[in-house]
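Exercise 7b. Backbone tokens:
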């Protein structure tokens, strides 16, 4: 007993495959107890009788010292008195629940007509599956009998019959309430009755990073369901996600939340879905919906341990050919199979998840692998694995092969989905919520490697253009790119998957030979080197960047590096032409050529070119550009006069004597210098007239960038820092199991006389 609940769990267990569950358990809110009575028939045995709001009487017999029993009763009486204010709100709170309406209507056929459409989008827009009306009515009748005999909404008991009803498939119209009761969200909603509305009111018209992300994902949320093609459906989804992001600003909004909430809103009201989401995120699936997805990644490690226990040959095969199981299974867990299976089957998975907890995700995942084990054993890479699973999900509504082979009547054959669920519950009893918690605790230190491995593989797979890089080279670029972002994480201009100019330059320092260490000298020459290098890197950044409104993403870097490292002479010349054509008019003018000459001179010196040759190359670039442009407009003598302005006495130049290059660019930009308009074909010809320039464009620049693995010590440091960041959150996954009470009362249940009829049989789940 707590201040607000009295809980009971019978010692007796159910029959296999549910042998880990009690035959009866419940958590009864004290505000639902109408009457409390002590029963002292014998001096050495004490008992109490509790009558609930719905008229059910529970009798508890204590097997403990009488003084202990009296202390329990006194504490219970005190706690009940404190709940009187909550009792007053109970009638209004439960009035709209489906289980209340189902006992009032004369016929089951009239049931849905008395419910408000705010209960779920399905009441207004229809449900995803084609329901057999006669079977649905039979199931509703079964639930009506259960509600009458064993309580409903806030007072419902959990006995084996409840599991049978849930696993046989919930009626659409009752699904939302059963989810809310099974998960415990109903109690949280009662304790915080106005909070959802208050959050929306308090933050009306306010925006945040989360609200912007939510807006992007709204129309990607189950677009195949008709309600999400209407303002009503989109508005409900928006309100739930926004309210959650404001209630939990440290988490805000994470992708996949929209998919889960969109599915729940088909069957639940907004407020019910809001509290069910909180139960999922904080209780059942901690860490799934976070930036790092550490909970979901950790559960992939747990899943692989279960695969090793139950299907060792399959595990060996996947390891041998380097197939990453999480490529297929992580989306199952993150979206709770909603994006993988047809929606009406995924809803049935949620039925079981809310009742039985996270073990359901593992059982179904293992059953999928078991069912397709033979095909997966023949797969040779990730792509084949994904194809096998995708084809299987597309055929879940067809008859199971065992039934086809056995010649059963087609009306009695079970679908592949029912076969899947049967395998999940019958073949994998080793998977329990207790075992999952233990394996999470055992494997939590592996989470950093798991997150890095999956994220890296997923990012690499999503590349639309690999720019002729092989898998290993892409992996190295990934390490440099995200390593630079990680170490620049304190820079507020750096996003999680994009880099700004400063971060780009830091990345290049580990890859390009011309990006050497910082120069701490304050001389004019050092200022020139720093300014020129920064100017070139910024120009390269702009050339790589495809979307000018965002930072540089991984695809931009791969594509840009590919253009440099895998190009030929002509493509490199074109690359530089485009990089310096600032107004993109396909013409280089004086300022463009001056900037190019200055920065190529800097690059050549950084790459170790003899200074005289570097100067000759740049001088040649300037003079030939002038000559090619001005030949028709000026006499030969005039051209020679301009040439003399750009010549420097032999031996009088040095990279540390910035006056020389400054003299050259100043002369080139002077008002008296003819306007140069150099198109790409002429620029290509100019690049071929100097041996040093030709070598630079042919291979000098492209070979200056090296793809070398990040130093192991740096990787260890990164892993350590990532671990420290995640460890505090990861500890949530190692929650201790609740300690059993020393004294457990026995229980007898007295059903109302009017409900002693035996319920009609419903279709068996299996």
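Sequence design result:
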């Amino acid at each position: 007993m707590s201040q607000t609940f009295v809980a009971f769990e019978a010692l007796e267990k159910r029959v296999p495959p549910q042998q880990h569950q009690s035959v009866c358990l419940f958590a009864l809110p004290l505000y639902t107890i109408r009457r409390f009575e002590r029963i002292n028939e014998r001096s050495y045995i004490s008992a109490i009788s509790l009558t609930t709001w719905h008229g059910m009487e529970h009798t508890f017999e204590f097997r403990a010292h009488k003084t202990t029993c009296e202390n329990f009763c006194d504490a219970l009486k005190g706690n009940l008195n404190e709940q009187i204010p909550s009792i007053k709100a109970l009638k209004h709170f439960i009035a709209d629940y489906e289980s209340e309406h189902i006992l009032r209507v004369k016929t089951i056929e009239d049931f849905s007509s008395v419910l408000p459409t705010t209960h779920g989008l399905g009441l207004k827009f229809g449900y995803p599956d084609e329901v057999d009306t006669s079977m649905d009515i039979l199931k509703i009748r079964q639930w009506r009998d259960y509600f009458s005999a064993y309580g409903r909404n806030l007072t419902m008991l959990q006995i084996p019959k409840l599991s049978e009803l849930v696993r046989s498939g919930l009626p659409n119209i009752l699904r939302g309430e059963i989810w809310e009761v099974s998960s415990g969200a109903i109690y949280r909603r009662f304790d915080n009755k106005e909070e959802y509305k208050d959050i929306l009111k308090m933050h009306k018209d306010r925006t945040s990073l989360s609200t912007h992300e939510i807006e992007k994902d709204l129309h990607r949320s189950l677009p195949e369901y008709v309600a999400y093609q209407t303002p009503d459906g989109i508005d409900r989804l928006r309100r739930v996600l926004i309210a959650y992001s404001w209630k939990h600003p440290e988490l805000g909004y994470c992708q996949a939340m929209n998919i889960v909430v969109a599915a729940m809103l088909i069957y639940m009201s907004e407020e019910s879905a809001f509290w069910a989401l909180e139960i999922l995120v904080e209780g059942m699936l901690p860490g799934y919906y976070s930036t790092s997805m550490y909970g979901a990644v950790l559960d992939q490690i747990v899943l692989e341990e279960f695969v090793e226990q139950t299907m060792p040959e399959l595990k060996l095969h996947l390891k041998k050919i380097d197939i990453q199981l999480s490529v297929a299974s992580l989306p199952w867990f993150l979206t709770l199979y909603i994006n993988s299976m047809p929606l009406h089957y995924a809803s049935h998975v949620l039925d079981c998840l809310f009742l039985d907890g996270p073990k359901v995700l593992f059982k179904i995942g293992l059953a999928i692998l078991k069912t397709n084990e033979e095909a997966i054993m023949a797969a040779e890479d990730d792509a084949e694995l994904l194809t096998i699973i995708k084809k299987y999900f597309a055929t879940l509504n067809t008859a199971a092969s065992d039934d086809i082979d056995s010649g059963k009547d087609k009306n009695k054959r079970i679908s592949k989905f029912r076969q899947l669920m049967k395998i999940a519950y019958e073949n994998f009893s080793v998977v329990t919520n207790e075992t999952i918690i233990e394996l999470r605790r055992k494997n939590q230190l592996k989470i950093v490697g798991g997150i890095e491995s999956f994220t890296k593989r997923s990012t690499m797979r999503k590349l639309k253009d690999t720019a002729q890089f092989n898998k290993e080279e892409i992996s190295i670029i990934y390490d440099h790119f995200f390593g630079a972002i990680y170490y620049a994480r304190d820079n507020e201009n750096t996003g999680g998957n994009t880099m700004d100019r400063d971060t780009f330059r830091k990345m290049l320092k580990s890859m390009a030979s011309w990006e050497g260490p910082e120069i701490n000298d304050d001389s004019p020459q050092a200022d020139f080197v720093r300014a020129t290098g920064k100017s070139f890197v910024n120009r390269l950044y702009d050339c790589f960047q495809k979307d000018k409104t965002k930072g540089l993403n991984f695809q931009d870097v791969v594509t840009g590096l590919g253009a440099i490292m895998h190009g030929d002479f002509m493509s490199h010349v074109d690359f530089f032409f485009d990089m310096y054509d600032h107004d993109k008019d396909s013409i280089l003018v004086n300022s463009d050529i001056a900037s190019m000459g200055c920065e190529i001179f800097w690059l050549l010196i950084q790459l170790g070119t003899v200074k005289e040759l570097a100067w000759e190359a740049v001088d040649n670039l300037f003079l030939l550009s002038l000559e090619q442009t001005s030949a028709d407009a000026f006499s030969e003598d005039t051209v020679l006069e301009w040439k003399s302005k750009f010549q420097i006495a032999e031996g009088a130049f040095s990279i540390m004597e910035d006056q020389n290059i400054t003299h050259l660019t100043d002369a080139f930009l002077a008002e008296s210098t003819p306007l140069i308009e150099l198109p790409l074909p002429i620029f290509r010809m100019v690049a071929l007239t100097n041996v040093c320039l030709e070598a630079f464009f042919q291979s000098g620049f492209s070979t200056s960038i090296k793809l070398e693995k990040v130093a192991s010590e740096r990787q260890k440091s990164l892993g350590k820092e990532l671990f420290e960041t995640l460890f505090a959150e990861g500890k949530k996954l190692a929650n201790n199991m609740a300690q059993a009470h020393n004294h457990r009362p026995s229980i007898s249940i007295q059903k109302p006389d009017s409900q002693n009829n035996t319920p009609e049989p419903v279709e068996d789940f299996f």
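Instructor comment: Residues 524-544 form the longest helix (21 residues). The first strand starts at residue 5 and ends at 9.
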